Amino acid sequence: MFKHLFKLIWNKKKQNFLLMSEILISFLVIFAVFTLMAYYYNNYKKPMGLDYENVWVVNYNNAYATKSTDSLNTYYETLRQTLKAMPQVSELSFCSDNVPFSQNTWQGGMTVKGKKIDHINEFAVEDSYDKTLNLKIIEGRWFNKGDAVAKNKPIVINDELKEEIFGNEPAVGKLIGDDADKNKMRVIGVIQGVKIKGDYLPSGYGQYQRADTGSFHGFGKIMIKVTPDADAAFEGHLYKTLANYMKNSDIEIEHLTNKRTSTNYFSVVPIIVLSIVSCFLIINVALGLFGVLWYNINKRRGEIGLRRAIGATGKSVSGQLVSESMLVATLSLIVGTFFAVQFPLLNVFNLQAGIYITAIILSIIFIYLLVLVCSLYPGKQAAAIYPAVALHEE
Amino acid sequence: MLKNYFKIAIAVLRRRKFFTFISLFGISFTLTILLVLTAFIDKVVGDNYPDRKRDRSLYINRLEQKGKDMSMSGALSYYFLSHYAGSMKTPVKMTIFSGFGGTNTYVNNKKIAVDYKYTDANYWDILEYDFLEGKAFTKQQVDNAEKVAVISEDIKKAYFGDVASVVGKFIEADNVKYRVIGVVKDIPITSYMTYSQIYLPYTVSKTDYKDKGYGGGYSAILLANSSADVQKMHDEYEQLVKRIPITTKGISVMYSHANSYLASYVDTGREDQSGVILVITVLGTFVFLFMLLPTLNLVNINITRIMERSSEIGVRKAFGASSKTLVYQFIVENIILTLLGGIIGIVLAFIAIQILNNANLIPNLVLSVNLMVLFIGLIICLVFGLISGVYPAWRMSKLNVVTALKAQ
Questions:
Q1: Cβ of A66 under 8 Å from any chain B Cβ?
Q2: Which of B19, B103, B296 sits opposite A251 (nearest CB)?
Q3: For B108, which residue in chain A has the nearest alpha carbon?
Q4: What pLDDT, in 10s, does the model give residues B4-28?
Q5: Does B108 touch chain A (CB under 8 A)?
Q6: What is the pLDDT of residue A63?
Q7: Other C-beta atoms within 10 Å of B3: how many?
Q8: What is the Cα–Cα distance from B188 to A324, expressed in whole angstroms?
Q9: What are the chain A neighbours of B289 within 8 Å (beta carbons)?
Q10: What pLDDT sits at residue B222?
Q11: Which of A42, A196, B80, B132 is deepest in the core (most CB within 10 A)?
């Protein structure tokens, strides 16, 4: 049966070649879209890792002109006390520019046991950082005052980095750092990865270091957790307080909820545009397939009539036509899958193999469904051909 | 002859309405997407409000400092631009202005997020903003560090509400009160070099513009006497940058260029990676892949259509029409079909653009189908028609007279 179908397809190889290349390219387009969607979904279902509601971010530029670290510390500690005295402020933390949902990143890399790990997000944080964002501590603890005197610099990492370095083993108490580096840092805690680039992108590797005495030189943001009753009037008041205190600085207050929305917007809009475009492409291809199949069947009326005359049922005629087109689809899917499989094999774009495999399976199902739907009606039409009429035309 | 082909084409189109629909759908939809894309690109990089003198302007907005283990890239300091770029001979005028930064202002317990930008007085001569009321600040006002502001229409509405004139009123931004002296037409944020909502004299800047470091937050536009001088101005700046002493430790080489608008718009911030080439590659790949599917589809359908007419071809061949004439006829037919699809596509693009404009995805970015976009659409249409017409026509022309007639 299959051999026979192959022969039929081979006899019209020129025509089928175009059809096949069209299916092949549609498969690749769909594969790309599904990969992106699977990637986004995979990230989306992971927990956020922080509470962003009621957290405000104050941007300031460090305009307090002093070279002395001591007076700088006093300057900002006074500000901290002023802010903490406000009833609406429940927690606050000065931090480096790479707050969640911002465009800023600080990244570094290290070589551990001969393996290079790149793109580690580095954060300089204070002891109050975890409470401000309500981070989930999986293992160990967050920083406290006692860490200032530790022999090895204490460090908190996120679960993704822990998995990369230690696998399933516990990380707390171990020393990490570049292989060449003698001053290694001691892991004191592991937190759940924080999706700093929004709901749809992964948390990436994260490494948190405790702010030391000179850190205020490099800070430019304050994260403030406010009580739920903090309103615009309070925000205005907070703004005035900050602006009056930091006279030489530009102040801006942003809300993490809004920042999250706009960050998500930048990930979602491209995929919406891509989906709409590929949707129309697929409609286009489907119509084309439908048209070509329909025409082919009309041209083969004689052949079909003959088959009916010698006893084939309508069902088997339509079955033959549908399986013929499915076979054409299979041939191009084999070629397409060959290309698609290269992505997980060669580890292109550093995505998990599972994402690609899901995308390949989904795209194969999609293309089969598409071809099936497009060939059902022409097949049905073929089944309705009366042998007498068809043979008479001939 | 052409008229004859036209008649045949219309007759053929009407005979198989379903196929005609598929072809038209494919062509018009593809064209719609491409037209919207070109309209967007045209608006983002082609719209020359407010810098109408682009043909004789050069833009400096990046300085890359590189050493063995470190590299920095970013905007420049006021000092660098005024001291070095300001010493150039060729430019007739130069303006230095900062990038836009964000701040908040609070009116009646309502928060307004505003973007502000510092400029000098030349800014208003080189860039031709449309003033809805008032005027720009002068050199005198800049030198005196007067707290004056030119604001955009958007912020006027948001801050003052629906009032006729706001010139002379005070606007508070970043806890400082500025006297409004002018209101200008809005600019979309995509024109990031000139976009802002409040324009202030650089002398009132809170951050120190006298800092002698090379990196900072400022950019400059150089204006030449005529477009013929632009190359000379470009070369002068290149020579100048080479001579600037390096003051930062660990830095061995500095790159900075005075570029045309387009080149500086897509600058990647890295010397070894040209933004222009990157953008062209990405866009080119997208357009190619995007057009490949509909084209293949059209080729497929066209083959089917043409083969259907094999008896007609056989008869014409039998009566002495050469393959060339037939190919010519089918290509003409196909181009007519594509142009028809093109007209539908333009209508669809027009509707899509209206919808996009109403959705207001990017504030103040108003897309429009202009002549340039239409022209590009027309070219795309013809290319499309040719590509999808040539192969089927070639296949058809190889058809044997006998085979063609026998199919009857």
A1: no
A2: B103
A3: A233
A4: 888 888 888 888 787 788 888 888 8
A5: no
A6: 65
A7: 7
A8: 54
A9: 29
A10: 94
A11: B80
- Whether residue A290 has pLDDT greater than 60: yes
Which helix (H) or strand (E) segment is B151 a member of?
strand B148-152
Q: Which long-range contacts (CB under 8 A, 24 or more apart) does B13-21 make?
A: B13/B337, B13/B340, B16/B305, B16/B308, B18/A291, B18/A294, B19/A291, B19/A295, B19/B301, B19/B304, B19/B305, B20/B337, B21/A287
B311 touches chain A (CB under 8 A): no
- Given a contact cutoff of 8 angstroms between Cβ atoms, the answer to whether B305 and B24 are in contact is no
Coil vs helix vs strand at A175? strand
B171's tokens: 């606007």
Tell me, what's the pLDDT at A190? Answer: 92
- For B91-116, write each residue's pLDDT tens digit: 999 999 998 888 888 887 788 888 88
Q: In what order do the strands lie in the sheet with B253-255?
A: B71-74, B63-66, B253-255
Is the pLDDT at B272 greater than 80, yes or no?
no
Tell whether A295 lies on the interface with B, counting CB pairs under 8 A. yes
Q: How far is Cα B8 from Cα B313, in angstroms, rounded to an integer? A: 13
Chain A contacts in chain B segment 56-75 (CB below 8 A) = none
**Which stretch of DSSP H or E encloses residue A58?**
strand A55-59
Pairwise pLDDT comparison (B53 vs B291), residue with the higher score: B53
Nearest-CA neighbor of B294 among B28, B4, B18? Answer: B28
Cβ contacts of A137 within 8 Å, gap of 6 or more:
A130, A189, A190, A191, A192
Cβ(B296)–Cβ(A25) below 8 Å: yes
Q: Check CB contact under 8 Å for A252 and B103.
A: yes
Contacting residues of B for A233, CB less than 8 Å apart? 109
Q: Hey, which residues 142-181 in chain A have their CB within 8 Å of chain B? A: none
A285 contacts B293? CB cut-off 8 A: yes
In chain A, what percentage of residues exceed pLDDT 70? 98
In A45-136, alpha helices (H):
69-84, 129-133
Global pTM value: 0.78
pLDDT of A274 reads 84
Nearest-neighbour CA in chain B from A271: distance (Å): 14
Whether residue B407 has pLDDT greater than 70: no
pLDDT value, residue B11: 84
Could A252 and B113 be called an inter-chain contact, meaning their C-beta atoms sit closer than 8 Å?
Answer: yes
Q: Is the pLDDT score of B161 beyond 80?
A: yes
